[in-house]
Design the sequence.
């Protein structure tokens, strides 16, 4: 990645980290503590001065409750509930994932059979 492009990307990621943290009313110190890093390192990330490791990047998305696509590219899911379900399903075994999908479909069919909400 060329230097100028990397600098711009780091700044954009940092802004998204800052925005996500602010929406949670979380201090830099609180985020740093949960990630096992220093508040200064969080500050450097938010200002686009530092590039974080992949493990910090993944853990940060979990702590902030946002997707990796959002942190990296600013892509928001169309529906946060669907994104949350997808994250949980991806962490299960294929057999458990298939069972969960079957149960969810049955629950949706039951909800539809009950009729529209009033």
Sequence:
């Amino acid at each position: 990645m060329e230097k100028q492009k990397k600098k711009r990307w780091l700044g954009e990621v940092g802004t998204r980290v800052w925005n996500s943290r602010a929406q949670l009313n979380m201090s830099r110190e609180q985020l740093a503590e949960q990630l096992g890093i220093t508040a200064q390192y969080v500050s450097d990330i938010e200002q686009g001065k530092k590039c974080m490791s992949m493990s910090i990047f993944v853990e940060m998305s979990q702590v902030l409750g946002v997707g990796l696509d959002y942190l990296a590219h600013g892509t928001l899911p169309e529906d946060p509930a669907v994104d949350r379900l997808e994250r949980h399903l991806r962490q299960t075994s294929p057999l458990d994932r298939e069972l969960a999908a079957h149960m969810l479909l049955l629950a949706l069919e039951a909800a539809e059979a009950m009729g529209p909400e009033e």
